[in-house]
Amino acid sequence: FGGVPRLLVPDNLRSAVSKANRYEPRLNESYQKLANHYQTAVMPARPYKPKDKAKAENAVLLVERWIMMRLRHQTFYTFKELNLAIRELMNDLNEREMKHYGASRKALFDKLDKPALKPLPKQRYLYTE
């Protein structure tokens, strides 16, 4: 996306959160290192509170309906083929105008979200154990 968000709101999956807690969640050490490298804050969603991430939940539903349904009868022999097909459909979806907003997802991202991203650090994060 060309930048770093100021805040990440992950689910309470084990790879991100070691101990879920409404007030003081404990992040997985490697996830915390990733956040530190990119100088971003992490605030996990509250357990069993889907409204904390309603837009993400709706995006998953949209992908399931709009993309997976179009690919369900196709056969892919490599991940590269599958990823290419998904990318093409994602680009189509992101370019489609949303009636309620009068703009596409891409246009709204470029206008609202992209300017709010912090610059990426010069070096990529390297995962180590």
From TrEMBL:
Q: Which InterPro entries is this protein grouped with?
A: Integrase_cat-core
Integrase catalytic domain: residues covered: 1-129
Q: Name one GO biological process term.
A: DNA integration
Q: Can you tell which superkingdom this protein's organism belongs to?
A: Bacteria
PANTHER family recorded: TRANSPOSASE RV3428C-RELATED
Q: What is this protein called?
A: Transposase
